[in-house]
């Protein structure tokens, strides 16, 4: 596929993850080798990658994820409650929410769970963009590389409500912080296409907020 196609069709895959087909660890390693080419602040490369394939560990992580997801869905602030005054967008949100519920119920069954982490003695106060900007581009590169190899992924963070419990489960040092949980599996079907998005001019601001060219 072209670069533009890769960038515009790498979707969050939840219901269509193949839970029964094993994923070769060599394929995951290929994706991670590409991820390591991402930029990091000061070229520190302070990232670490936890790849979980053990069924028992995956199940325990899945339990934490589902527990957090249930609280989130019951909170009234999940995506399912957004844009109720816009029927078209509300319908999309319902589909997204249904797929998120499905993933929460099956997270522990996904063949590979990848947890990108970054080494930090303590989280900085105030804006943390400098820290996470040295990890999240690499995590997205991993997801793009996975898509190019026929693997589906999804960006999830609900497990972070139990970050310390998951850290203890996986034996993470105290100065290693988790950034995201990326379920990874082959996907069923191949009909991914660009998603419906707000027009660029609705979110574009030139030079300053509300300045010339802003809409």
Automatic annotation (TrEMBL):
The keyword DNA damage does not apply. The keyword Zinc does not apply. Belongs to the nitroreductase family. Residues 9-176 form the Nitroreductase domain. This is Nitroreductase family protein. It comes from the Bacteria. Keywords: Oxidoreductase. InterPro entries: Nitroreductase (IPR029479). CDD domains: Nitro_FMN_reductase (cd02062). It comes from Nonomuraea guangzhouensis. Pfam families: Nitroreductase (PF00881).
């Amino acid at each position: 596929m072209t670069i533009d196609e890769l960038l515009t069709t790498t979707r969050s895959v939840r219901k269509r993850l193949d839970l029964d087909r094993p994923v070769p660890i060599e394929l995951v390693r290929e994706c991670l080798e590409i991820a390591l080419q991402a930029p990091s602040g000061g070229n520190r490369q302070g990232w670490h990658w936890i790849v979980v394939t053990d069924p028992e560990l995956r199940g325990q992580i899945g339990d934490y994820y589902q527990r957090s997801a249930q609280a989130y869905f019951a909170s009234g602030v999940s995506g399912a409650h957004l844009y109720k005054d816009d029927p078209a967008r509300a319908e999309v949100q319902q589909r997204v929410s249904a797929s998120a519920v499905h993933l929460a119920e099956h997270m522990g069954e996904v063949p590979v769970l990848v947890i990108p982490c970054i080494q930090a003695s303590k989280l900085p106060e105030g804006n943390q963009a400098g820290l996470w900007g040295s990890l999240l581009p690499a995590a997205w590169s991993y997801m793009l590389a996975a898509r190019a190899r026929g693997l589906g992924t999804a960006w999830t963070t609900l497990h972070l409500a139990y970050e310390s419990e998951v850290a203890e489960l996986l034996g993470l040092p105290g100065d290693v912080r988790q950034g995201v949980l990326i379920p990874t599996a082959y996907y069923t079907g191949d009909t991914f296409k660009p998603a419906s998005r707000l027009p660029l001019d609705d979110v574009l601001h030139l030079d300053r907020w509300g300045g010339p060219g802003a809409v």
